[in-house]
Amino acid sequence: MIHRFAIVLCLASAPVLAAEYTCPDMAAITQVGNCASEQELQASFAGYCSDNARMYDKDDTSCLSHDHYKKLKDVALWESGEFLGYLHCSQTPEARKAVKSNGIHVAKLGKLTRVVCTYENGSEMALRTRSECSVQGDKAVCKD
């Protein structure tokens, strides 16, 4: 009986493991997905925007013009560690590397927590986890 009590006390006093996350430096991110060619964007615009149901969807503004569609859809997947983000393909590598972080915030999505880093140009890099996270200064601390 005493041994069981000692084990319970040891488990109760074990430190809680926590992971700290800071926003990735845009100079160190890596492109994972490919950018679409102009022909691929034109074909996807024609296919997506020719759907009759979309013509009656007042909330969908992506089909106003090909240029507007391209602003929304010409993106590729980028990563840095556990952070992922869809960044616009029109931005030059030099401009992307120079972008600074605006901050970090945490959002709960059902059972998932989303740690989101925002940047000056409106870009976002996000990490999804099942841990409980909170913002402490310029970093997110996540505990299992």
Structure description:
This protein has 144 residues and is an alpha+beta fold. The protein contains five helices and nine strands, in the order H-E-E-H-H-H-E-E-H-E-E-E-E-E. The strands form three sheets. A three-stranded antiparallel sheet has the order 1-9-8, with no helix packed on it. The chain has a three-stranded antiparallel sheet with strand order 2-3-4. Strands 5-6-7 form a three-stranded antiparallel sheet, with no helix packed on it. The longest helix has 12 residues, at 38-49. It is globular and about 50 Å long. The relative contact order is 0.20. Mean pLDDT is 85; it is low at 5-14.
**What is the straight-line distance between the termini?**
29 Å
Instruction: Enumerate how many helices there are, as a single number.
Output: 5
Looking across the biggest beta sheet, what order are the strands in?
1-9-8
* Percent in helix: 25-40%
Q: How many strands, what sense, and barrel or not for the largest sheet?
A: 3 strands, antiparallel
Sheet-strand content, in percent, reads 35-45%
Which structural category fits the helices and strands?
alpha+beta
Question: In one word, what is the shape?
Answer: globular
User: C-alpha Rg, in Å?
Assistant: 22 Å
User: Tally of extended strands?
Assistant: 9
Rounded average pLDDT = 85
Spans of at least 5 consecutive residues with low confidence = 5-14
Order of helices and strands: HEEHHHEEHEEEEE
